[in-house]
Structure formats: structure tokens, C-alpha cells
Amino acid sequence: MGDFSLDKLNFVLLFPVLSLLFWAIVLLLLGAFKNLSRNFYIGASVIALLSTLCFLLVCNGFGLKDSHAFFGLFVSDNYAIFAQIVILAFSMLYLLIDKDEQKPEFFSLFLFMVASLILMVSSTNLIVIFLALEGSSLALYTLIALRGTHNAVSSSIKYFTLAAVGAGFFVFACAFVYLKTKSLDLDNLLHSEYISDPILLCAGVMFLVIVGIKLSIAPFHFWLKDVYCGVHTNFIAFISIVPKITMIIVVLRIFSALGGGVKFEYIVALLAIFSMLTVSIVALIQKDAKKMLAYSSITHSSFILAVIVSSMSVSSQGDGTSYLLSIFALFVYWISFAFANYGIFLILSLFQKSSFESFSGLFDQRPVLSVVLAIFILCIAGIPPFGIFWGKILILVSILNSGYYVLVFAIALSSMIMLYAYLKILIYIFFKKGQEIEAGNLDVKQKVVLSLCLVGSLSCVFLLL
């Protein structure tokens, strides 16, 4: 203890999290004692996220060097920095597009949730990950239920129940890891002599339960459709992107540590194949756009899980180039999907109903809006030359390099099936005739964000240059 100093705690790496916690507490106190306008809370929340982004870039973002704080409990590496930038950027986009009346405590809980998400991607310690996971989840359950409708409350309870079961599996998995390695740090597990131990395989399967719930992988996806129908439309865009990119980083850390000797990647591959094929077929029979997009989100999450399988395989083989290709493919794909998904739900938020019939004749009445919506739908369908197509090509190449040919076939088949589901809504928009459509108009902020999403969907191809 004689060599201990505060400098070794490296508090500067915690500034992004501490900044968000400070703003969240301030907004919570203001909401309790002052009756301020909704625009004030939105502006203050955006400023909080911007200041956090500045702290991130100034403190550790420009150097892109691995740093540690609090004796390794807090880590700043390339994964953490990239994920934090995505979390903060798309959180700000959500606040700018949201037009629904929210209670003052919504914004405080929102900042608490984002702080927990940042903490979750910035640690390799299983206890810290678990605490951050539960902190973000509890805030998210509450935000879903704050809408106050019966559907919102029931979907929040269903999500909470399933996630509570997943949290129990996570704790048991942590206990198994500690049993064999006497450590809860994933870096120690990565270099552990027990990497081929069957107990660690059991731990991996238990981790897979919480991963399946948080990434909404079938058969752990039953909460997702209810949430899509129960919350505000713009909040769906946030739920489908930001918490999942956080979980993707956690999955990369955990599964890379567990992959290799126990052949854990085969179990993950089977789950990904089952999920993408089953859900693609179910999506074909949906008559509501939101429900179809819920199943679409599951297929995209399954594709990401397939990439993680290939990254686990090449990582265990020590092939650094193929591993970097897998990670690059994952990030290109998810960023492209994020822009397109935000654009779709921003447009859907203008309509009172989301059934396919409610979009009949939309092109005759709102041609520009119809064309933009069609571009976003073609983007998530993986039609060239949009960004997701190139991301999917990178995914297939990385999986082929790792030798999982069955996964490539499953992704191609699932994409073909989902194409019919996407084309169904386009048929109603352009070729069906309907009555007068009641739809709202975009305000200035929403038009700017929609333009940004459109540019992002079209220009993600330049990430390949």
C-alpha cells in the first residue's frame, strides 16, 4: 500500500460516466422542484451527451491507446471507445427525433441508462459488467412502462421477467468461471489454463441465455414484439440499436475468452442458424409493419451473432488479419443498420396505425416520403448499393474465411426469405390504392435527422475505401 497513489486510479477515464451521472442527478432534482418545459429537458439532455462525448474524445479518444482505471476494473480500449461514441451519438439522435410528451423523470432515467451502458462496454470484469447491465436494464424497464398504457406496462413486465431469469444465469456463469479460474476478469480467462474445461463450457451456455435475451435471439425473443407494440415508435429505434451495440461489445469480450478449446462457437452457431431461419419464416405472415420489423431486428441480431462465431474461431487460431476483418464487418453492418432503422421508425412515427393496409396509396399522396421510406427498407433488406449490402458481403467473407459454410448458406437463405417480407410493405406503398392517409409532418429537427440517416444509409459504402 506504500506505493498507492490517486494517480493510479486514473479518474480521468471515468469522466464520461461521472458527467452523465451528474447531469442525471441535476435533472432529477430540477424535475422534483421546478416545472420546466419539455424542450428544456431535451436541450439539457443533449448538452449532457455532447459534454460526455467531449470528455471521451479529449480524455482517451484521440490516442486510441488501451488504458485502465481502478486496478483494471475500468478499461478504455478500441472496443470501448467506438461503442461509447455510437451510444452517445444515437442517443442524441433519439432525443432530437422524439416528439412524444415525456415526464421529467424520463430524461433523468435516460441519462442513468446511458451511463450504465457506457460502463458496461468499458470493463472486462464480470461483476462490473453485471452491475452495469442490471442498472441499464432497470432504467430501460421503467422507461418502457412510463408511457402508462396497458401494453407498455405489460411489455415492460414481460421483459423484466425474462431478463431476471437471464440475470440469474449470468450470476451462475460468473460463479462457474470463478470456480475454475479464481478470477472474474475476462483477461485472465482468456489466458487461462482451464480454457478447455467442461465447466467453462457450461458457463458459456449460461452466458448465452442472457445474450439471447438482450440481443433478442430466438427462442429468447418473446418480449420483443410486445415492446415494439407497447412503446412510442421513436423509442423503438433506440431500443433496437443502442442497448444491442452495448451487448455486442460484451459478447465479443466474453465469447472471445470462452472460444477455442471448448468448441463453444459451435453452440453459438447453431443458435444463430435456428434464430435467423425460424424468425424469417414467421416474419412472412405478419400483417403489421412494426411486428415485421421486430422479427427483422431478430434476424439482423442473428447475423451479428454469426459474425461473432467467426471472430471466436479465428481468434483462437491466432489469425489477427481475419479477426480484424470480422470485427470491421460487424461494425460496418451495425452502423448501416442503425441509420436505416432510425429513418424507418422516424417515418412510421408520423402514422397512427402501422398495419400494411394503412400505407396503401402512400406514394400517390406523399411521394417524397414514400421514396425515402423505400430506400430505408431496401437498405435493411441488403439491396445494393446501400451500406448494409456491403456490410453483409464483409460478413459473408469473414465467415467463409473461418470455414463456417453452413452459416453462410443460412444467412443467404434467411436474407432471401426476409426480402419477401420487406417487399410486402413496398407493394402496399406503391401499388395498392387506399383512402386518404392521415399522417403527421416532420419538424425541422426531424428533417435534419432524417437527412442524416439517409446520407448514412447511402454513404456507409465509403467505409470500405
Automatic annotation (TrEMBL):
Known catalytic reactions: a quinone + NADH + 5 H(+)(in) = a quinol + NAD(+) + 4 H(+)(out)
NADH:quinone oxidoreductase/Mrp antiporter transmembrane domain span: 123-417
Location relative to the cell: Cell membrane; Endomembrane system; Membrane
EC number per UniProt: 7.1.1.-
Keywords associated with the record: Cell membrane, Membrane, NAD, Quinone, Translocase, Transmembrane, Transmembrane helix, Transport, Ubiquinone
Signal peptide: none
Superkingdom in the source lineage: Bacteria
Membrane topology: Multi-pass membrane protein
Predominant localisation class: membrane
First-tier enzyme category under EC: translocase
InterPro entries noted in UniProt: NADH-Q_OxRdtase_suN/2, ND/Mrp_TM
Transmembrane regions listed in the UniProt entry: 12-33, 40-58, 78-97, 104-121, 127-147, 159-178, 198-223, 235-255, 267-285, 292-311, 323-348, 368-391, 403-427
Pfam families per UniProt: Proton_antipo_M (PF00361)
PANTHER family: NADH DEHYDROGENASE
Protein function: NDH-1 shuttles electrons from NADH, via FMN and iron-sulfur (Fe-S) centers, to quinones in the respiratory chain. The immediate electron acceptor for the enzyme in this species is believed to be ubiquinone. Couples the redox reaction to proton translocation (for every two electrons transferred, four hydrogen ions are translocated across the cytoplasmic membrane), and thus conserves the redox energy in a proton gradient.
Annotated family: Belongs to the complex I subunit 2 family.
Record's subunit section: NDH-1 is composed of 14 different subunits. Subunits NuoA, H, J, K, L, M, N constitute the membrane sector of the complex.
Protein name: NADH-quinone oxidoreductase subunit N
Provenance organism: Campylobacter subantarcticus
Recorded name of the encoding gene: nuoN
